[in-house]
Amino acid sequence: MGTLTDRPVTTWAAAAERLGGGPRDLTVRNVVRTAVGGSGLRVRLTNAFGDRPVTFGHVYVGVPLAGAALEPGSNRMLTFGGSPEVTVAPGATALSDPLPVPVRPRHRLAVSLHVRGEAGTLTGRNRATAPAYPPPGFGPKRLPGDRPEPATAPAYRSVPGDHAADEGSGAFIEEVAVWHWMDALTVTAPAPVSAVAVLGDSIATGVGSETGHGWPDLLADSAVRRSPPLAVVNEGVSGGRVLAAGTGRPAETRLTAEVLTKPGIDTVILLAGLNDLGAGARADDLIAAYDRIAATARSAGVRVIGGTLTPYAGAEYHTEEGERARQEVNAYARHGGAFDALADFDAALRDPADPARLLPRYDCGDHLHPSTSGHQAMAAAVEVPPLRT
User: Where do the segments described as Disordered lie (predicted)?
Assistant: First the structure.
């Protein structure tokens, strides 16, 4: 039974992207990781970019064993308003009923969705990852009770039919780096446990890291050890922009439509804008958008940690004009007063001998995305101050 101080908290999240034609009449098994533990697990499904209603015949949650296989006896059916079936209209979301099982922190879960009939355009998250825990070479080794994790893909697709209840892997014949139709897992946790959402682009999704652990994953590993624990959830979109849409919505729209609609998120870390500069955006337009993002978050009781834009000289879309705009935007992030706190990623990654460039050991090779060491340096540059009570 919960207490008066219990609250719903988002323990995993993903931004919504338009990913083309979806699978038809089969089962997808998404493998994700919780941030904080709790009880009353709920799964939120999204059809944000759908061109038709999508019907899920069954939705199950289990614990991965190896590959697509689940630990025996772990797979549980979810319901939606008491029904095992749910239809999600285009542009809508659906939240499952609470599942009365304990949920461990930093723990893999497999959510299996049987898609009934034609699904149309898939809403999901591209560049999904399922790296082993804990991240190598960063922070404490394990939480109490952790076991070595076998390899698993971010998601699996089955042969035709309803295989959501299967605990074996035989029906799941395809590995894919996409999460399907899910954008949040929530649990009930004791206050003041809360969540931080990373609102970003491909750097947030971990591009450049050889281990698959991006800086939000590394930050999550340390944040869950705080007292009280803190969930870090990743709302990054590869190619994402602040001012324009890509496969996902613009960052400003994602804040209101996706981040602020998920429970327990008290802080947003904003690191986005390089793709806008690469497309020719002006510093004034980015700064104005930052102001609007901070004001919208603050009106919802959410604080914003502003991230300085990282060096990118040598990248394919770098220009001198874009570099001047980056410096102007970063000066505003540091001194403009829009944000509640600062994460100076630029200072953490730049080459002192050439500040427009990444330090060589922090460059994955494309002069834009950080290396594994670069992602570690970014995570170390973030300090999430305690919430004011």
Answer: 125-152
Residues 6+ apart with CB under 8 A from 42: 8, 95, 96, 97, 98, 99, 185, 186, 187
Nearest to 206 by CA among 285, 127, 146: 127
Q: In a 3-state reduction of DSSP, which class is residue 288?
A: helix
Kindly indicate the confidence band of residue 150, based on its pLDDT and cuts at 50, 70 and 90.
confident
Asked if residue 29 lies in contact with residue 206, where contact means CB atoms within 8 angstroms, the answer is no
For helices 372-380 and 215-223, angle between their N-to-C axes, nearest 10 degrees? 40
Half-sphere exposure of 197 (CA within 13 A, CB side): 30
Q: Are 203 and 236 in contact (CB under 8 A)?
A: yes
Cα–Cα dist 17/248, whole Å: 4
- Ramachandran area for residue 81 (φ above 0: left; ψ -120 to 50: alpha; else beta): left
Percent over 70 (pLDDT), the chain: 95
Q: Are the CB atoms for 110 and 31 separated by under 8 Å? A: yes
- How many CB atoms lie under 10 A from the CB of residue 227? 5
The mean pLDDT of 293-312, rounded to a whole number, is 98
